[in-house]
Amino acid sequence: MKLYKYPAVEDWKKLLQRPSMRMEDIEKQVTPILKTVQKDGDAALKAFSLRFDGANIDSILVSEEEFSQAEKDVDNDLKESISIAIKNVTKFHSAQKTDVLKVETMPGISCWRKSVPIQKVGLYIPGGSAPLFSTVIMIGAPALIAGCEEVFLCTPPNSEGKVHPAILYAAKKIGLTKVYKVGGAQAIAAMTFGTETIPSVSKIFGPGNQYVTAAKQLATKEGVAIDMPAGPSEVLVWADETANPTFIAADLLSQAEHGPDSQVILVSTSEDIIQKTEAEVEKQLSVLPRKEIAAKALEHSRSFLMKDEAEALKLVNEYAAEHLILSLDNAEDVAEKIINAGSVFVGHYTPESAGDYASGTNHTLPTYGYAKNYSGVSLDSYYRKITFQKIEKEGLESLGPHVERMAAAEELDAHKNAVTVRLNALKD
Ligand SMILES: NC(=O)c1ccc[n+]([C@@H]2O[C@H](COP(=O)([O-])OP(=O)(O)OC[C@H]3O[C@@H](n4cnc5c(N)ncnc54)[C@H](O)[C@@H]3O)[C@@H](O)[C@H]2O)c1
Ligand SMILES: N[C@H](CO)Cc1c[nH]c[nH+]1
Ligand SMILES: [Zn+2]
Fold first, then answer.
1. Which atom number of ligand 2 is nearest to the Cα of residue 233?
2. 178 and 269 share a domain?
3. Containing domain of residue 417, as a range?
4. Ligand 2, closest atom to CA 255?
């Protein structure tokens, strides 16, 4: 991790850049995949699975037998942990339900807003470099809590054409039994256009690599909604002199190990903490099974020595990290001042991994600085909010003349007439 001491504000934008490929370059690779799936359907899905995953797929839909085998292959300890994760995620997301909001804006005029679940949603579960069964819980459980009618998931097969048993186990455990063996941009294309086997959906959820994320963004041009751009994982740790370098190094490596295009950032006003953390990162990295992946991510990761807390706060908000860890003595106070982040982990004993798996918050979060304008997945992501209104006769009598006047001023006589004919009827 390269260290930048007291970086000048005018250099921040460049120094805080993510390592991802340029969108135009990825689009060039992804667009032909989308077009081919739109044209050739299942045949294209099978061909891309062979090309990108080395898998020969017979049936794209996971069978009952595969689910039963998965049940046997997942050990009881892991089943217990999955249950706890489901319980906490369900508890946090169920609490996000809101009542119908009804307001009488004037006597005789009622306006209300109701959350209505999106009917057809497709979930993408990453599986290229690690089988992220925790994502099944994160984006599957809220879909069911919200009451979405059709919910299914797509995930890449391994080279034997199989889906990891924990993905199938977690899916069945939360009540999802339609799983399609297809990954990457081709899965996003299938959920966008539909194929012989996979139905098209109204909204696509789920994180993924740069190809998946670019495909999701392109899917929006076809009228499909997406949760958000949730690409390669990132974490920013802001640590003061009370932080423990062993903890911080572990947190940084936890996201660096996701992929070579992940990025981790350390911010501190203490050079001593930065140096000790760098040493710990080297030590812990050397024994990590995924050390090659993590080492690549560290090549474009950075440490920033800042002159004071105010400057550090500005830099942290400018980066808009997917995950922000506040390893600070006054972490709770600082948390109040965070305006750009996907999810914030407050205090020395809040590892980011807890949120990845089981504390209750959602791990599907905006990356690449999109935390400036997008939220992570929550129960709300599965609803549309529909507004309603009912106007009684007395309400129209008091509001109607104002609407007539405004419509006339906009020179929209038909709008005005829709009120006038009713007011005239009331006078008769
Ligand atoms: N932001 C979030 O909320 C969040 C959450 C979990 C994971 N993630 C990220 O998700 C990503 C998962 O990535 P992954 O690769 O392990 O799995 P993945 O399932 O996203 O992607 C695997 C697929 O990528 C496609 N692919 C691979 N190389 C390709 C190429 N050259 N051209 C076109 N397509 C290609 C293949 O079809 C393959 O099936 C990681 O970057 C991880 O950090 C993000
Ligand atoms: N850190 C990822 C989100 O960026 C989520 C995850 C799943 N499993 C492990 N981690
Ligand atoms: Zn993670």
1. 4
2. no
3. 392-427
4. 1
